Amino acid sequence: MKNMGTVTIVISALLLLIPARAEQQSTPSAVKTAQSATSVPKNGNETHDTSASSATPNATSDINQEKIRELTNRIQKLELEGTQKAQTPFAVWAVVIAAFITAFAAIGGSIITSINQSRMAAATAREARELQRQQALFGHAEKILEFKLKQMQDFYAPMFALLGQSKGLYDKMLYELAEDEPSKYRWAPKPDPNDDRFQVVDKGGNWKAFRLLDQLPAVRSKPKAFALADRILQIGEEMTNIITKNAGLASEDLIDLLGRYMAHYAIISTIHRLGETQPYEPGWHKMGYFPRELDEKVAKGYRELSQFLDEYSKASKRMLEALPGDGGQRS
Fold first, then answer.
1. How many domains does the chain have?
2. Residues near 28 by Cβ (< 8 Å), separated by ≥ 6?
3. Do residues 182 and 224 touch, judged by C-beta distance below 8 A?
4. Between the CA of residue 87 and those of 115, 192, 219, what are the distances in Å?
5. Is residue 190 in a domain?
6. Most buried residue, 57, 190, 256, 302, by CB count within 10 Å?
7. Whole-angstrom Cα distance, residue 302 to residue 153?
8. CA distance linking residue 69 with residue 17, whole number of Å
């Protein structure tokens, strides 16, 4: 566009110069013709005409130079206007494009910032949920541990220890009876599945299973054995107190056995207080005997609790070892 405007201006200038040039070339011929026509010598006028004819070319030259300057100014003005007109659309488009780029950059930056903020918020929410989940798990594990410890400390451990002590004293009492009166008491040659490992002779001379609930009055006449039986009853009282206070810590399958043991203790302690000396026939009491399954059940519960606490302790130790240290390394 700029080159076409310049070409147009140059052509216009040339068209303006051609008439002026033709006029300049035709002027000397006209002057010469006029001089030839007036060649008759006149005394005073000849000098005057010569001066006039010599002034005509100078005037024409000045006029042409003025026109050239005017034309040059017009050309420069037209070139400036053409340049400005040519540059204006590009400048406008440059500004518009720059504005669009700036707007898109701002919008893009805002979108990116919003996306980053959303991601950060989502990550923070996930971390908060995970923290809450871990806190809930730790809280639940802590409550379980607290309950297991209470079971161990307040029920299973003391019951396990007291039952073991009672069984040891009971076995010692049986040994004393077998030593003191072997014709009446003996160890069963073939213990049956019901753990009838110790036997006593009934009135008919038959060997029957020995149960302390039946034979306590007869044991009273054996000082060594009776001292052991008396201690067994004291242990029974301690176990009864534990059951009364902490039966809720026992497993469900133990509750029935605990009730049966408390009934056994109530009956045998009553016989002990009465001071009877005549034994009952073996099997005379249809109920109230010591529930022999109690030893096994309590021992099983104690071992399971002990194993759980050991595993919990090991897991806690592994977790503590996995935690970051204080930054230092052991030498």
1. 1
2. 57
3. no
4. 41, 120, 130
5. yes
6. 302
7. 10
8. 12
Where helices occur in 275-329 by DSSP H, the ranges are 293-322
Angle at 215 between CA 209 and CA 221, to 5 degrees: 135
88 inside domain: no
Give pLDDT tens digits for 29-39.
443 444 443 44
Quote helix, strand, coil % in the chain, to nearest 5.
80, 5, 20
Inside any domain, residue 92: no
Residue 2 falls in which region: left (phi positive, over 0), alpha (psi -120 to 50) or beta: alpha
- The per-residue pLDDT for 179 is 94
Answer whether residue 228 is part of any domain.
yes
- Geometric angle at alpha carbon 54, from 53 and 55, rounded to 5°: 90
- % of residues, the chain, pLDDT over 70: 73
Burial track 204-238 (b if 16+ CB lie within 10 A, e otherwise) = eeebebbbbbbbbbbbbebeebbebbebbbebbee
Q: Write the CB contacts of 211 (distance below 8 Å, at least 6 apart in sequence).
A: 282, 283, 285, 289, 290
Average pLDDT of the chain is 79
195 within 8 A of 292, measured Cβ to Cβ: yes
Specify the residue for token string 């133990």.
Answer: 254
Residue-wise pLDDT for 227-247, tens only, equals 999 999 999 999 999 999 999
Domain ranges, residue 239: 142-321
Whether pTM exceeds 0.85 = no
Return the pLDDT at 84. Answer: 61
